[in-house]
């Protein structure tokens, strides 16, 4: 319970900047609550003065007042609704932005350990649930509580003994609500987990749609999806049953209370306690109580599921981010420094076998060092550690005098440009993908980079040229075209350290030769780490390092390594025999 209070308080913290609107909403709710007891009061006078007392003025004045009361009620209800929705929507938009920003700032290890579906679902499913808990729940809890208080005061003023009789039912209602909220909490947690899995399944099914078709996995994937969908239905129905049982129970209890009151007034000597008008007013006020009580008990479900979502979101937000701004910033005009891997040992989270073991490597400033080795030997891992996506468990990576672990992350990554093994393009225009994150880069510069990466040839032929959409994951383009855009992106970043992980693997021989020339130009005056399976592309590197199982096996220049007849020579020979194969 106290945990729920804490979570709700933290959630309310998001409404603080909008306290003015929230105050307006509260004011409107208070007005709505104050107007509510006016109705039974007016009816009471209508009976006593209009019908029994035959007061001629009451004949027109009371109906007029009644109409005005309802008009005023309508107005304040409107204001209360709109104002509290405005607060909730503002708060949710802020929270949504914070969650997205936080998710993208989490360390890679954290991304690896969390399911993608769960992360998608926090923005797509959790935030709307939260918004309900903040807006409608908020209105209902505050306004209806005020209304209930107002009506109860009215009842007390009319006949306090009868009111006490009704209040006897209150503890029973309270116990019912407690039991129900515990049950709801459990099924809401289950629903959140399932919704996350469903989102993950959906994402996997849609992004892998080609594989799904070719491998005839439609039935298999639908089967998994259907199973989750059914589980979600069952969990939702459990919550619905608990929530729906609340309503009739409260109504039955309320009806019992009314019948009790009528019985007492009719049969016992209480008849002379109340005028007919007061009696009418009393019963009206009582029946007006049902609706807010029903809403209040029902809203518990909404609040519970909102709290379940909030708990999950806050758990995510409490995960520490990569320390982007901490550490020593690199001075703006730092000359190129040597990069040294000093006895680095690293295993991926949850992995026992190290991906790199006692790994030593020096990248002299301005030179090109190539990493070769069989698949899984740890080449990409070297690049990932250099980019500080992960940190070594032993040893260190130095950039001149600095341990890169102590450098400010942002300024370190500014030194790096990367063309990765899997090209990632965003669902945006060709130009935006090349100038990624820098929308105000001049067009001429983008065109120049596109020419340098030999991408201009095909971009020129696209109907919308630079504004052509790349499609989800760059699906509108061929593999080689995507790769050339990624290379142009690296050109545009113009960073001193260049990482090329299989940067030309998707190109045919002719384009590869051209792009390779461009990359050689780009690599000039930069420190370059190039990873390639096709050894012909790295023959001219200043230094070649052959890796196996996370260790350096041999290193030297192309001719020396060939002469030595070791791993490099073997790799080279097998490629020479197998033609220009990629593996
Ligand atoms: N994110 C990860 N989590 C766990 N293990 C990983 C991860 N990425 C790579 N590995 C493991 O680390 C080892 C080295 O992988 P790495 O990607 O560095 O190989 P590589 O030399 O780049 O191979 P390839 O030539 O196929 O790209 C492999 O055994 C791989 O299974
Ligand atoms: Mg790799």
UniProtKB/TrEMBL annotation:
Q: GO CC annotations?
A: plasma membrane
Span-the-membrane segments of this chain are 58-76, 127-149, 155-177, 247-267
Per UniProt, subcellular location reads as: Cell membrane
Q: Which UniProt keywords apply?
A: ATP-binding, Cell membrane, Lipid transport, Membrane, Nucleotide-binding, Translocase, Transmembrane, Transmembrane helix, Transport
Q: Which InterPro entries match?
A: AAA+_ATPase, ABC1_TM_dom, ABC1_TM_sf, ABC_transporter-like_ATP-bd, ABC_transporter-like_CS, ABC_transpr_lipidA, P-loop_NTPase, Type_1_exporter
Could you tell me which residue ranges the ABC transmembrane type-1 domain spans? Answer: 23-305
Superkingdom of origin: Bacteria
Signal peptide span: none
Q: Which GO terms describe its molecular function?
A: ABC-type oligopeptide transporter activity; ATP binding; ATP hydrolysis activity; ATPase-coupled lipid transmembrane transporter activity
Full protein name: Lipid A export permease/ATP-binding protein MsbA
Source taxonomy: Bacteria, Pseudomonadati, Pseudomonadota, Betaproteobacteria, Burkholderiales
